[in-house]
Fold this protein.
Amino acid sequence: MSPVTFDAPASSSTSHDPARERFLAALPAEPTWEDRLEARSLPLTTRFTLGSRITGVQQAFLDEHGFLVFAQVATAAELEAMEGGIRDLERRWLSEGRKTVYGIPLFVGQDPEGNPFIQRFAFSSCFCPEIRAFVRSERLLPVRSVIGLNTRVGDEERDGVVFNRNLNVPGSVYTGVAWHTDALRDVFYMRTPQRQLNVGLHFDRIKKEDGGLRLLPGTHRQGLWSMCTTMPHFVSQKDYANEVAVETEPGDLTVHDGRMWHRVVPSPHMGWRSLRRSMYVPYLTDEYSPKSPDSPTPAYHHLFVRVRKAQGALSKLGAKLRRRRG
């Protein structure tokens, strides 16, 4: 599978090229001083509308705080189609007994009825045409244009398009994710952390009291030392006074800088009510580096697996103690 890029198509000055014109029209506006003042005055809970281009105020908000929330970019029908594709993929991978995809471990836990339940699907767009179509939708062109002129969908790179299903039940292996930055992955690859925007599509209504995505705004401007040492990665779920709870509705699209500290708070609910589904799209600009079925598991995933096992053991111990007290 060859990479798909979204650079501005070549065009002669005399020819009419609709694709090039659409690309140029989607380039983000350069923020003015007034845009930056307005962006700083907006509440951190602001929900924007994704139009034909990123506005000056939206770009200034992203520069200042490191994230954006766009309201209901995907339709209910599109969400159902992608979820249906994921259910089909789950049945296939479970029947095959698959443990990894291109070297990346699958997170397989249990649903509330005790059935096997895949909670993290790596490289989903390589196997699910509904997802592959959505991440290439032209309505996302303004988001891609923010990332860079030669942006491509990383279907076969890093972890690919990742579909998450966080669930709070005794057999879950993926209730949430502790504080981390994505700089750790670059460090394991022996390269300087680069700007990477995490583009997430959300499938459920999640309010602050339901858990969900938390961000420390402005930390995308920190240096490498702070990214690696401010707190241990994938360990702490400590609350911070300045953190932002990102509340989402089905179909919302979030964009946040991977260099900032972020986490996913486990739901306080139990069973299916705790389900939180999200999908993250890697739009990349660095050197093309595809994975294959023979790719080894990266070192950072070995670390992540150990952390998850330790957290799972502590969770089971806590549940056992609560049952005894009850």
Q: What stands out?
A: The chain has one domain: 67-325.
